[in-house]
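Before a colleague's protein record goes any further, I have to sign it off. Would you go through it and say whether the fold makes sense for this chain? Take the sequence as given and treat only the tokens as open to question. The record follows directly below this note.
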Amino acid sequence: MPRLWTRTIGELTLTYVPDAGVAMIPTRVYPASAEEDWHPHRPHMTDAGHLAMGCGALLVERGGDRLLLDAGHGRITGEDPEHFQHGFEHVRDLPESLASLGMDPAGLELVAFTHLHDDHSGWARPDAVEGRRSLFPNARWIVGAGELGDGVPASGERLAGERERTTSVADGTEIAAGVRAWALPGHTPGHTAWVLDTGDGRQIVAFGDAMHSPVQIPHPDWEVVLDHDRAEAERSRRRLIDFLSQDGVYGYGVHFADQPLGTVDAKQLGTVDATGHWRPWNDRTDAR
């Protein structure tokens, strides 16, 4: 399960802010997989045979500027898991995580979302806290072009003050110093990764649900049950894996349980189907 951590990488200070842990039923999350496909992936699974995933947000700080990427799962009881979930575990909720950092959510001015599924917009929703301003009452919301569709759905606002507080940005838009949008559609129509320039020649990609687990790196053809456009999602995964295999490029996978920061080991790249393996960040070998 995930844990709170802070890393300084170049000019950036990154803090993974956990909100919950989730145990998934592997063949339901990845319907193209079979039970026997999971034997090589036991390190990513619980003793009971469920796929471990995390949920949370990434706090990005450069100098005096701060932004949050995604907003966690929000209030959950764990009593009604989806059909592909075994259950939830509160490792530490996001407000508690922020409090442990001495951070007042009311002081945060910018939250950027990879997409607007509930487990990424949780504490930004109108029902997150009393008052309908969300946990972040003064923040502006940034989403990728196409994510809002034709406007607020009939079911109501997905983000607190969605009409007034939300800006949609095109592929390549810089939303803060050294932070730009990278459109990786498929999981949702406007799914967007955020590419962070560390200031020392490296890049970090917060790629949201373009991949849900390291197991998708050797299996980019494994669609996720919630992918909106499965063919487009696979194309985005392959683009992402290729980018992460380059020198100096790291990825942040919000759902990657206790391995959210890492890179694709280019030495494992071979045939079209052998797409490498996830190499988690190791302070002793990767830090500068």
